[in-house]
Amino acid sequence: QVQLVESGGGLVQPGGSLGLSCVASGTIFGYTMGWYRQAPGKQRELVATITTGGGTTNYADSVKGRFTISRDNAKGTVYLQMESLRPDDTAVYYCNARRDSVYWGQGTQVTVSS
Length: 114
What we know:
Layout: E1 4-7, E2 10-12, E3 18-24, E4 32-38, E5 45-50, E6 57-59, E7 67-72, E8 77-82, E9 91-98, E10 102-104, E11 108-112
Parallel strand pairs: 2-11
Antiparallel strand pairs: 1-3, 3-8, 4-5, 4-9, 5-6, 7-8, 9-10, 9-11
């Protein structure tokens, strides 16, 4: 079983930047890692995913060109660098690990507001 702990959320002004981290309790090698988010009153949605070797990334259209997902398998960590943040990026951001099973972190709040 993999336990995931997100960090790095907070309050940022529109146009600002924020970096999220997700640390796994064990190895993440072999897992596709992802970031998802859920805004109040909305369904959880995909933000970005990255394959185990980091060779393939996938982004939601709404974040393409602004967000970057990366991973460090040796550290058991996946990152999400967010630039040019907008108010509609406000949500709880969740880390996800997927292989035979799917694991979720507890989430970290990101609020974009002036």
